Amino acid sequence: MKPLYKIFAVGLFIFLPSCLSLFWEKPTFNLKEIVITRISSKEIHFLFGIEVQNPNGFDFKLRAMEYSVYLNEQEVGRGRLEKEVEVVKSSSAIVQVPLQTDFKNLGNLLGTVLFNQNLPYKIEGAAIIKTSLGSATVPFSKSGEIKIKK
User: Fold this and answer.
1) CA 43 to each of CA 36, 51, 76, 81, 94: distance values in angstroms, whole numbers, following the listed order
2) Has residue 87 got a pLDDT over 70?
3) N or C, where is the chain less crowded by C-beta within 10 Å?
4) CA distance 69 to 20
5) Cα 55 from Cα 76, distance rounded (Å)
């Protein structure tokens, strides 16, 4: 009888995470702001405010996020957030993610970035979401136009 329980437990352990996609809607990610936090002689530091929206009837935790940022269709950098953030059911949370880039990565965008002009952007990546039913990796991509704040 004990081997039957072990088989059932292993089957349940494998089955539950795969059920996550049946019971939840994927969260959405929207870029709300880009702020320049520091400028040195060789690099510039940004802070991106990303709104994570949870459309579900249960809380989840954003465990980690990897992202690439493009300004005017040019990749300016990549980053990783490893800070856990809880997003309450049917609500949203602003997640502050850093990005540090050399001036050479900005190229001809430097003037546009520094003089607060509207700039086409794209941010894409993947987020690791944890719920009581299991974990999932959620890819995201968002583009639009934004003004960079100082």
Assistant:
1) 11, 26, 11, 20, 25
2) yes
3) N
4) 29
5) 31
Give 113-123 pLDDT, tens digit per residue.
Answer: 777 678 899 99
How far is the C-alpha of 135 from the C-alpha of 24, rounded, in Å? Answer: 12
What burial class does residue 33 get, using C-beta atoms within 10 Å of its C-beta: 0-12 exposed, 13-18 middle, 19+ buried? middle
> Could you identify the residue written with the tokens 């936090």?
37
In terms of DSSP bridges, do strands 85-87 and 28-39 run parallel, antiparallel, or are they unpaired?
unpaired
Instruction: Judge contact between 126 and 11, C-beta under 8 A.
Output: no
- Of 106, 112, 93, the C-alpha closest to 49 is 93
Q: Cα angle at 134 between 128 and 136, to 5 degrees?
A: 30
* pTM summary value: 0.78
Q: What are phi and psi of 40, to 5 degrees?
A: -115, -170
